[in-house]
Amino acid sequence: MTTAQHKLPLTEIFPEPPDDIDLALFDPAALPEHLAVIMDGNGRWAEQRHLGRVKGHNAGIQAVRELIRSSNDLGIRYLTIYSFSTENWSRPAAEVQALMRLFARTLAAELEPMAAEDVRIRVLGDLRPLPRATRQTFERAVQRTASNQGMNLVIAVNYGSRLEIVQAAQRLAQAALAGEWDPNAADAATAGMARFAEALNTADLPDPDLLIRTSGEYRLSNFLLYQMAYSELYFTPTLWPDFDRYELLRALIAFQHRRRRFGGVS
Q1: How many CB atoms lie within 10 A of CB 139?
Q2: Which residues contact 137 (CB under 8 A, 6 or more apart)?
Q3: Of 92, 136, 225, 255, which has the fewest beta carbons less than 10 angstroms from its beta carbon?
């Protein structure tokens, strides 16, 4: 948890809270330092409206914009969004192609406004299999914002946690074979955990304090499995295109009223 300072008055960030939300219950100085979000439910949102699944993904873009804007205005330091998993390639080819075009078009349109807000864009995952135009858009965004000092927007695209863990284990094994650390030393377990964390793609990121998953699903779906050992989990039935700043506020209030023990005494 961080003591971030929000950038705007709360009444500007949340101008019209619903009747069931008491803004007095929210402490803007006790935010998660790192918020991770699984944005689920675009397809079901579209199906409920008898629309194609791609229409749902397009509708979800506004929710992404609102999440980024609200998180940045509140002063959250790290926001990681799960945009496309390594398993998502199994979806229909037309849907995958539409998603890739949507990623490129949206990021290109939002890059300069986010850069002006001092947002730093980062990527988790392997960009190489992405279509050239989409890959280059991500690479351009990372390069354009590399020196920014504001919120870190981490986009997980073609990301899978199991693969990340296997690759980290391979790096650790190679380090042992190279004599860079001794797996039989007295402190091998502690040293090994530290080196393992350094071998992950998130080596320079704090672990998520809070994970939000939308659409009523109760699973992690191969997302940051190692990093979320002690993250608080918040599940909501709200489908992603309907997730607005007030749904975020509900999640943050719930987070602030939990007691995090990290395995210690209650």
Answers
A1: 13
A2: 103, 104, 107, 108
A3: 92
- Annotated active-site residue 22? The verdict is no
Express as a percent the part of the chain with pLDDT over 90. 86
Output DSSP code: residue 23.
G
Of all helices (H) and strands (E), which one includes residue 134?
Answer: helix 132-144
For the chain, the C-alpha Rg in angstroms (whole number) is 19
Biggest CA-to-CA distance, the chain: 62
Give the mean pLDDT of the chain.
93
- Catalytic pick among 40, 42, 152, 209: 40
Asked if the structure places residue 55 within a domain, the reply is yes
Strand partners, 159: 85
- 88-107 pLDDT, tens digit per residue, is 999 999 999 999 999 999 99
Query: Checking phi first, is residue 222 left (phi over 0); if not, alpha (psi -120 to 50) or beta?
Result: left
- Of 22, 27, 73, 88, which residue is the catalytic one? 88
**Active site (annotated) includes residue 88:** yes
Q: CA of 89: how far to CAs of 35, 139, 163, 179, in Å? A: 25, 20, 15, 38
H-state helical runs in 49-117: 53-74, 93-116
Strand partners, 235: 213
Domain range for 175 is: 161-205
Q: Do both 180 and 86 map to the same domain?
A: no
